[in-house]
Amino acid sequence: VSTQSTGSRGIHAEYGKQWYQRRVREAGVSTQSTGSSGINAEYGICHDIDHPGRTNTFLCNTQHDLAVLYNDSAVLESHHAAHAFKITCQAPEQQNINIFKNLDGDTFKSVRKSIISMILATDMTQHFEYYNRFIAVNANVDGDGADQQEIPASQENKTLILKMAIKCADISNTSRAPTLSRTWAHRIILEYRDQIAEEKKRQLPQSFPSNSLDNIPKSQVMFINLFARDLLSAYFDFLEFGHLTDQLTDTFTHWDAYNDNNPYPYELSPS
Q1: How far apart (Å, rounded) are the C-alpha atoms in residues 12 and 213?
Q2: Cβ–Cβ under 8 Å, residues 58 and 195
Q3: Which helix H or strand E contains 129, and what residues bound it?
Q4: Bridge-partner residues for 259, per DSSP?
Q5: Fewer CB near the terminus (10 Å): N or C of the chain?
């Protein structure tokens, strides 16, 4: 796996952390149960930690050590969560990076359970399950004539809001300004193309449809239509942040404007 891939993942983690923290504050979800906003940030910054630059499908098809360890189920997400705790809780004392060390036993168990569940929620195979649950909760609230942000404050609903925040953060590049969205599109497509090349070389099943990444704008339009638009719009509506919905629409329009008469003018580049 290239250093470019691992470097991009590190930047993605920091972007995701910042996006997640801001949206959680805006949603008004209390983080008192974690005892620290720094611990709350662990969700965002660790959701892709130690990413190998390959998809779950690739790891399973190659019988990678991680796929064997996690029984082909949420392989990367399980690894990210486990690795986050390994480098914090099992680090030498002199490194002083164990942000959990001042928590009592019960609080640590609660925080650990929460962080693991948040990171596991980024598994894209669970995408529509979380989206449908969030829509159902909102529909029940709206049906009672209540304010959309006044979702009943059960722990289950708080957790669902946090999971939606981390999921949206994970794909938030589609709702950023076109110049920034383009940078991230290039990075992820380079990573996927690298995987495709290795799959062909090793005669493995192809993880992506043939030629699906040849046209960069179309690949982004497809992803926004299939995954990003509904999820992000639902969460933005919940926050009553129309400007974020507008930015998502603007970025989609940017990608959708390219065609045979208006060809994409940018070279594929990670920068």
Answers
A1: 20
A2: yes
A3: helix 127-143
A4: 262
A5: C
